[in-house]
Amino acid sequence: xxxxxxxxxxxxxxxxxxxxxxxxxxxxxxxxxxxxxxxxxxxxxxxxxxxxxxxxxxxxxxxxxxxxxxxxxxxxxxxxxxxxxxxxxxxxxxxxxxxxxxxxxxxxxxxxxxxxxxxxxxxxxxxxxxxxxxxxxxxxxxxxxxxxxxxxxxxxxxxxxxxxxxxxxxxxxxxxxxxxxxxxxxxxxxxxxxxxxxxxxxxxxxxxxxxxxxxxxxxxxxxxxxxxxxxxxxxxxxxxxxxxxxxxxxxxxxxxxxxxxxxxxxxxxxxxxxxxxxxxxxxxxxxxxxxxxx
Length: 294
Description:
Four Helix Bundle (Hemerythrin (Met), subunit A)
């Protein structure tokens, strides 16, 4: 004899399934937000190449449990932004000179595609936005604001890609964003500000000259930037083949997850030193106090 399921039991089961699905959706959303937060911290230099990523510190900073942090770190490992070391855990991935070459080779090819399409599709409003971004680069150079120069530079190239409208090119460039941000500083420091600004204004002028001119100019521009970055990295006080060795030697330091001043950011990027700020220091002090109290 077939047993009957009461309407109450069926409704309760459906409600439980709905709650589970809602919980899964919240977890997925939270995991994506945590991944993006850590990715941005790597891109803007708050987390430096070679720096140890402690789940507890990241969870405390983001006000979440350790589970979404752990998930985010594994996602970022797949993107090449995080690496795991034996007996040491997760660290911000260290880019070798070969990595930088590969990143800029791929980026140059993608920018060529963007240029071919943008030359046909750019509107007057697009040209105004691109010019405004170059003006921001120039103003930031006048202030000696390296971080803002890099942000405006990347925003300019992101806008070109958006004008081109090739969804796959945009997605591929976005996947390289944080890695490009790790090295763009070196290209900015090594290139005279006016030359960089003139180069971007030339790209805007090429939009009106058609797809051949703009595509070639975009590719050449990125290749020059890559060559400059590689030369600057190889000359700086780094270990052979990788970025910011001095940070890697301080694997027990808590990550600098709060905003730092422009002067501190420049010192971090040029000298490979970790800037000190109140939040991470306090996290480190609490961890040491816990260990001593055991």
